Amino acid sequence: MGNTGQNHNIGIALIHMITCFVILYLSFNPAGCMSHEEQVNEFFQTGHTNNWAVLVDASRFWFNYRHHANVLSLYRSVKRLGIPDSQIILMVADDMACNPRNPRPATVFNNQNQHINVYGDDVEVDYRGYEVTVENFIRVLTGRLPESTPRSKRLLSDERSNVLVYMTGHGGDGFLKFQDAEEVSNVELADAFEQMWQKQRYHELFFMIDTCQAESMFQKFYSPNILAVASSRVGEDSLSHHVDPALGVYVIDRYTYYALEFLESVKLGSKKTMAQFFKVCPKHLCISTVSTRTDLFRRDVSQTLLTDFFGSVRNVELLTETSSLAKVNTSSRSGSDTCSKDSCKGTDRKPGRFSYPEQVPSILI
Amino acid sequence: MSMAEENTAPRAAKNIDAKEQDDECVMKEKNTQHTTALCFSVFFIIVGLPLWWKTTEVYRVSLPFSDIEHLSGKKIEYRIEINVIWAADQEKEKVDLSTLASHLSTVLEDKRGYNSSILSPVHRVAVREAESREVMAIQNAAQVSDLSPLFSTSQLNVYNVIITQMTQVLAQPVIAPSNNIFLPYNGAETSSLVDQIVQLLKDVVRSTTVSKTLDVARGQITQRPDKDTMRSFRYHSGFDVTFTLMVPEPDEVNVQWEIESGVKDYLQPLFTSLEKYTHFTITSQDGFACNSIYSGTSVPKVLYFVSLGGKPKKSENGFYYEEQHLPHVINPLESKLGSHASNSPSLNFITCIPPMNKSPLHIQDSKGKYVKSDAFLSPRWGGVMIYNIDKSLSNKTRPTVHLDMHRLMEVFVAQTRLLLNIQAHMTTNEVVVLSSGSSSLHQWEVAAWLRCRCVENLATSTSTLKSLAQLLEEIGNIVINDEIGKEVESAVASIKSSHSHLAIGNLEEAFVASRDALQASELAFFHPSLLELLYFPEDQKFAIYIPLFLPISIPVLTSTVQAIKWFRQHKKAKVE
């Protein structure tokens, strides 16, 4: 019960905040003069209209099973909270489920109890195998993809999109390794985000990274409206959570494990905030120090809902007025309203029969 | 002894000779050696260095940076021509027409809006008296729509304000389809008349929306979420429109809809009014009509056994969704709507038949009232309508129900207008907007839409070019090939031509030019070749060059230094 009361308070606080903002805006900006009549309910609840997620597992090979499980677990969570597959870009080597060393083929588990098969039957991988490259990642972010790229592989976000970028893999001070072949540097990443900002490709961006020395990846960011969280400080290692003796490998990383534990408790329409999310993995659980960056973000994280990034809570508007249109007389077409089965035959569309083409030309027989 | 001495002397001389010869030999050898070393280094400097410089140079076509800089600061001016026609003969002496003209233009000049440094309308006001036949026509008119052709203008930026006498037909201000505003004169002073005209013009020209659109396109969105700009799509060269029917219980009711004829009868006029400017591809998924309606491919997918998500609440006479539940209603549907083949944004329109045990199903607003239309929209996504079927039918076994396309389309046309930002909010009280009965847009609506989109495209393409220029400045590794150069040139030219067309009032030409500019600048910015070389920070270049150059440059450098030293010594020795 106490919880709902708290939610109510937060709701009131939010409305107050918006009101204050409007009043501030009106008093400082001469433009506000025009919008005197506008009421608080003239605004949508949030500043974004759609949510996107870019989930990247930058490593491959069997012993990196846990990274695979990390990214797939997060994929399941954001999908459960409402981001549709068409707005999730999943980049993963995808070599675990069918790995010859996998004793449970076609499954990926994130827990040694093997309760949830995170591979499931509805995972839509957009970039797999050797497509997971730095180049493709930067191309997806900046939108510089070849013309032939299908819609599902594009980040078609706009100035009203909230974007979640999750990365996991092996990293060092200032870089994240991609599949033992190349690495993305923090400078490159910061430049890519700046280009996204310049081209109005996001409204707010949440960057989450689980790797060693993860903090170094967001230190170079300079574009506005970015919120970042990393699993470890510079000089620290991020550790894995537990091993599954049946598989013989570690199945999940510590930070992602506790983050997921928190996300599991989040339901659609939840009022949990980002500030709560930042505290999910204290040092005694994570062993590494979780580090956050909020200076680029304009809102207060304790007022920012988790579902602004991890879910897709749409703004809706009730339609109060319909267009009045003159009724077109469609009696000839809709005459079937009253017709019986026999008299309707003319208007009914009959599906054509399908048949196989001849296998051997008839001339030969 | 002397013999010995005699003997030794020539030998010594011989020895010295031999030594000198040896020395000379060595000297010669060293000379060649050092000359070769010098030749090598000269070769490296003259051939190697330029070759390395040339081959590692980043190819870059020169771009019109100064033009881009100039355009990004340039003010957008659009011209509006206002013809005030005085047709209120009896009250003529009350208002002096020339005073009215000068007063009107000064008021319009003052009301330029807050961002007048980047955007300003230029008004040209002309006032004339109505001809006698026009006055006659107004007096004899049975309907306002009869008068429209009399004052019609095909130019999009010309507005006629016709001030008439109060008649039975004209008791309040009327906005007629072809840029005509009829204002019955109520005998007021010049200043209040001018205010009335300005107010009406604001509604028709939609100057506030234009400046709001510009702000959004320039990226100056404040944290204040604004409904109008958030709800509607920005300009795209094409839209995919999808109609979906959800029948959760096909075993209970046989639902039939003639969406093809519905679209043709009701929605097509709207799309036809905009077809010159943007392309709509209409598809539907309803299970049996698998062919596409106009063009493009349709997804032959049955959304049978699918219903809206969430749990509606029960009331005494049916079920209802509360407003805050609606966001969660759409999400589960989205995966079932099919993926889209094109990259254009999609407008999704969903009609949902509630299941029998949940009907009638309504939507309750925040005040606790049912929404009459049973419909809601989600910004930049589309709309959902709940279509309740008459419950008395459920007595029959599997009744056939034909959906009323008129009811459906009244909702979807309204939503389309909102999503495309065509809907104008009238701030003037009691104004009547003449409706033609079809969904086709009025001339003034098209004009206002074009004006907004033109300004938006100009701002977007200019800022795209500007950020491209800035990017090139910051990151030296970006290749600019001829194609990108061409696109940038054409974008700059189009922006310039759009600016000049807008300033002289050729709205349509200005829009077309701005559309070309938008396409060219997007193509240049998003060109895949911009990423052909990943962006190396400068220090990483050293990591590549050092292993390449050190093994060659160390021997060359040291031998050159030694050669120079040797030649200097040699010269000194010779001089001495």
From TrEMBL, chain A:
GO terms for biological process: attachment of GPI anchor to protein; GPI anchor biosynthetic process; proteolysis. The active site is at H170, C212 (nucleophile). GO terms for molecular function: GPI-anchor transamidase activity. One of its GO terms (cellular component) is GPI-anchor transamidase complex. Residues 330-355 are annotated as: Disordered. Coiled coil: none annotated. Residues 339-351 have a biased composition (Basic and acidic residues). The chain crosses the membrane at residues 12-28. It holds the Pfam family Peptidase_C13. Keywords: GPI-anchor biosynthesis, Membrane, Signal, Transmembrane, Transmembrane helix. Signal peptide: none annotated. It comes from the Eukaryota. Pathway: Glycolipid biosynthesis; glycosylphosphatidylinositol-anchor biosynthesis. Belongs to the peptidase C13 family. This is GPI-anchor transamidase.
TrEMBL record, chain B:
The chain crosses the membrane at residues 36-53, 542-564. The keyword Endoplasmic reticulum applies. The keyword Glycoprotein applies. GO terms for biological process: attachment of GPI anchor to protein; GPI anchor biosynthetic process. Keywords: Endoplasmic reticulum, Glycoprotein, GPI-anchor biosynthesis, Membrane, Transmembrane, Transmembrane helix. Pathway: Glycolipid biosynthesis; glycosylphosphatidylinositol-anchor biosynthesis. Pfam families: PIG-S. One of its GO terms (cellular component) is GPI-anchor transamidase complex. It is a multi-pass membrane protein. It is found in: Endoplasmic reticulum membrane. Belongs to the PIGS family. This is GPI transamidase component pig-s-like.
